[in-house]
């Protein structure tokens, strides 16, 4: 038997990294007519009407008994003014999904990146910290990839010769497959800002950077690289819970309408976790 060499990538998700062909990465591909007829996006914003480029008042809300019928049209605005107003409302509405906690500022930062970033990837230390805490705090024996890897190291390390056998490499991948990859879809993520910024994830790579074995103990450094897409696809906007919120309606129009066409972007998150253990669990 020979020793597994590090760094060694033990898992890659079926979805690939940097996949610009994904459905939620489309932008500027739908006309105003398509958005109104196919998706029912006639009313988008409480502040402006992007289809007529006019300002709205509180009485224009379709749920108001005084809604717009017979009232004069609002003041005309330019497309640039309309865009700025929509993004401001987009940020303001995001606070409903990001109430408090160390990550609540991220959604507004990511919306601004969509507005000015031109589709470039997004990275923030707070996202990395959120991922690290998620992995560390997952104590589930059945789902935690960290715990499942720890068990595999304990069982498969060649303790007498102090290395991990290359022939046992696939056992590490099996351990990942038995668990649940880190996702921000827990209850607390619905109000701490992570559910609205990341929620599910698109692609995951897991790499063992190093493994040391000595005195019946081991120490492994495991690197998680996760990528998500800050964008909406057709399925997202047709879900009742999404379509009901102006937040998602504005997002979809700013991204997909050919009058705006703001590019979605890749969100990159990374964390290195130390996993330690003993021979026979002692």
Name the helicity range.
25-40%
Biggest pleated sheet: 4 strands, antiparallel
**Helical element count?**
10
User: Structural class of the secondary structure composition?
Assistant: alpha+beta
Q: Would you kindly provide a brief summary of this structure?
A:
The chain contains 10 helices and 6 strands, in the order E-H-E-E-H-H-H-H-H-H-E-E-H-H-H-E. It has 282 residues and is α+β, with helices and mostly antiparallel strands. The chain has one domain.
Secondary-structure blueprint:
Layout: E1 8-12, H1 32-37, E2 48-49, E3 54-55, H2 79-94, H3 106-116, H4 125-137, H5 145-156, H6 169-178, H7 194-197, E4 203-214, E5 217-230, H8 234-238, H9 240-243, H10 246-256, E6 265-278
Antiparallel strand pairs: 1-4, 2-3, 4-5, 5-6
Helix pairs in contact: 2-3, 2-10, 5-6
Please, could you describe this protein's structure?
This protein is an alpha+beta fold and 282 residues long. Helix content is 33%, strand content 17%. It has one domain. α2 crosses α10 (246-256). The chain is elongated, with a radius of gyration of 24 Å. The two termini are 25 Å apart. The mean pLDDT is 92.
């Amino acid at each position: 038997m020979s020793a597994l060499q590090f760094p060694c990538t033990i898992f890659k998700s079926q979805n690939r990294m940097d996949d610009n062909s994904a459905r939620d990465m489309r932008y500027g591909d739908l006309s105003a007519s398509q958005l109104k007829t196919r998706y029912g996006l006639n009313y988008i914003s409480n502040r402006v009407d992007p289809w007529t480029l006019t300002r709205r008042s509180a009485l224009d809300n379709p749920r108001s008994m005084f809604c717009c019928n017979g009232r004069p049209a609002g003041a005309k605005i330019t497309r640039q003014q309309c865009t700025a107003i929509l993004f401001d409302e987009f940020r303001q509405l995001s606070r409903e999904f990001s109430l408090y906690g160390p990550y609540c500022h991220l959604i507004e930062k990511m919306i601004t990146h969509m507005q000015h970033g031109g589709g470039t990837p997004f990275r923030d230390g707070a996202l990395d910290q959120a991922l690290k805490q998620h992995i560390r705090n997952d104590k589930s024996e059945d789902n935690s990839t960290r715990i499942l890897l720890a068990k595999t190291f304990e069982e498969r390390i060649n303790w007498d010769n102090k290395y991990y056998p290359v022939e046992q490499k696939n056992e590490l991948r099996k351990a990942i497959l038995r668990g649940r990859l880190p996702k921000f879809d827990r209850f607390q993520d619905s109000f701490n800002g992570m559910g609205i910024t990341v929620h599910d994830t698109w692609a995951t790579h897991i790499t063992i950077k190093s493994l040391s074995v000595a005195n019946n103990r081991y120490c492994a450094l495991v690197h998680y690289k996760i990528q998500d897409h800050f964008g909406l696809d057709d399925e997202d906007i047709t879900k009742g819970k999404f379509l009901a919120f102006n937040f998602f309606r504005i997002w979809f129009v700013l991204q997909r309408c050919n009058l705006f066409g703001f590019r979605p972007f890749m969100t990159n998150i990374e964390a290195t976790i130390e996993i330690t253990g003993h021979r026979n669990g002692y």
